Amino acid sequence: GEDVEQSLFLSVREGDSSVINCTYTDSSSTYLYWYKQEPGAGLQLLTYIFSNMDMKQDQRLTVLLNKKDKHLSLRIADTQTGDSAIYFCAETNSNSGYALNFGKGTSLLVTP
Amino acid sequence: DAGVIQSPRHEVTEMGQEVTLRCKPISGHNSLFWYRQTMMRGLELLIYFNNNVPIDDSGMPEDRFSAKMPNASFSTLKIQPSEPRDSAVYFCASSSGQGNTIYFGEGSWLTVV
Q1: pLDDT digits (tens, 9 = 90+) for B41-84
Q2: Could you tell me what percentage of chain B is helix, strand and coil, using 3-state DSSP and rounding each to the nearest 5?
Q3: Which of A30, A47, A87, B48 is most buried, taking the most CB atoms under 10 A from its CB?
Q4: Helix, strand, coil percentages in chain A from 3-state DSSP, rounded to 5
Q5: Nearest to A98 among B35, B99, B105 (CB)
Q6: B99 and A92 in contact by Cβ < 8 A?
């Protein structure tokens, strides 16, 4: 299938902003998602963006989409230790029946 | 809403045994997905159903794996016989239709020894 790529690891200090990046290859991607997974838990939907948008903001979260470069980012403002988790980027499109195609996940470590 | 409910949460079984994982999707959702998560391969789609009908099972690793959805509120993923390489977290997810948000259960953590 099409690829979704993420960096594997990010470390930030508490209070700083975190930026997690994702690239994808499928030009027919319709929706792009960010999910969060805490240790031993399932996947929690954080936010999503439709492919005809370029930005979406939801409290401390900002999603930026550059459709031309097929680049998606998630910015977490004022990062807290509770934000430490694995963050997954995922895309869907009609070709795959809207099933999610995930990246490998970025482990975010927030240090005091 | 209770969310997607999976059982068992944890299972340890011996190689060769049959394993059955169960899922109850969110009420009213008509799309159901089974994913497998491993360190090496990340999250892989195994199979998904629309209106209880399997649409794409190309991700099912081999004939030892089978999935059913006898009605809109229940699905099973069966592994027979199980092997150590099947050890993984198996997630069930559901949505209210194609293109709508997909919600995940807490996962079934399977260890085959």
Answers
A1: 899 999 999 999 999 898 998 899 999 999 999 999 999 999 99
A2: 5, 55, 40
A3: B48
A4: 5, 55, 40
A5: B99
A6: yes
Task: Please give the structure tokens belonging to residue A93.
Answer: 């499109």
Does residue A102 surpass a pLDDT of 60?
yes
CA distance A77 to chain B (A): 24
CB nearest A48 (choices: B43, B101, B104)? B101
The gap from C-alpha B83 to its chain's centroid, in whole angstroms, comes to 17
Q: What angle do CA A34, B106, B60 make, to 5 degrees?
A: 80
Radius of gyration, alpha carbons of chain B: 13
C-alpha separations of A36 from A53, A106, B11, B30, B68 in Å: 21, 10, 24, 24, 28
| Residue reference for tokens 């499928």 | A26
**What is the token pair recorded at A13?**
């200090």
Q: Do A100 and B102 touch (CB under 8 A)?
A: yes
Taking CB atoms and an 8 Å limit, are B33 and A101 in contact across chains? Answer: no
Map tokens 């005091």 to a residue: A112
For B69, the token pair is 């959805």
User: What does the pLDDT look like over B92-105, one tens digit per residue?
Assistant: 999 997 678 899 99
Mutate to test the interface with A, among B39, B43, B48, B91 (most CBs of A within 10 A): B43
Q: Confirm if B34 and B100 have CB atoms less than 8 A apart.
A: no
